[in-house]
What we know:
Number of strands of chain A: 7
Number of helices of chain A: 6
Oligomer: homodimer
Radius of gyration of chain A: 17 Å
Number of domains of chain A: 1
Distance between the termini of chain A: 23 Å
Structural class of chain A: alpha+beta
Amino acid sequence: MTSHPDESCCGSPHPIAPLPELTARLRREARRVTGPREAILDVLRRHARPLRIKEIHTLLGAGANCDLATVYRAMRLLEGMGMVKRVELGRRGSSFELLGEGDDGHHHHLVCTECDRVMELDSCLLETVEKGISLASGFKKVTHRLEFFGICPRCQSPAS
Amino acid sequence: MTSHPDESCCGSPHPIAPLPELTARLRREARRVTGPREAILDVLRRHARPLRIKEIHTLLGAGANCDLATVYRAMRLLEGMGMVKRVELGRRGSSFELLGEGDDGHHHHLVCTECDRVMELDSCLLETVEKGISLASGFKKVTHRLEFFGICPRCQSPAS
DNA sequence: CTGAGTGCAAAGTTTTTGCAGCCTC
DNA sequence: GAGGCTGCAAAAACTTTGCACTCAG
């Protein structure tokens, strides 16, 4: 189990991918490397935890001069390319986190129901379950989405 | 594994609770049994699968004369009372399904990514995982949300 | 009778879309 | 230079809220 860096906690679970490596992935798929996209990828690589669209837009700051609609479009593109994983953490709206090259993003999260802090859980033992479900149901390409919720130690103490 | 009744499939996984039993639960909590609430509960008990707010509102029909805002308010109430479970199935917005008395709602779903049909999965083996996570992380009241996605047999055939 | 609950209307959020101009390739 | 991408604006989709009236208990 690893905690997230950033406001929430500390210690990155994954090595931070260099920005040029990320833009290279865009180019490889014949997508253009633009200012907004570069800025968005940079925000994502510097915050290794699920970020909401609005958070990304805010973190971009006024300098990036990037429209909210552009963030939505970029995240849809990146999701489609598998560069980013969409996570639904119960709060309103989706969150996104960067995926490493070849990372299928099959880790899961532990979310505090009080303060929304997010921890990442390391292992995923559900591949065999998926196979069993696929066999029993006839479904193909079975994947899953799994999130844990609870009250974090900080929110359990009286003065949170 | 059980499939859902209704448009999707057939065979109810749970016995259908009588309407008076449901309204009794309302009264027991000192909530009023009104026309709209009764109609909403009746819709829920007759469709044993996750329903979206809009679906519920539509299924109520013009006769019920129930406002969409009232459905939202009712679902929040019922969720708070534990009579209903909120499910996020990837489509936009939440879905809800009726919970039996004493049912904690810990079953999960298999959703077709093509047509959105939903099947219910019977068992949940994650309680021990939850306990382990709680021990390792210090989180309290750990619960989880788990959904499987895939392409159902019907959507795999050429003429779906 | 009393206040919880409702309909209606309006506003708040989140996400998508159309379009003209810009800038990457 | 061509077309993918962007900002801006508007709208669509989803959800909440304020208020006066109604009706369940």
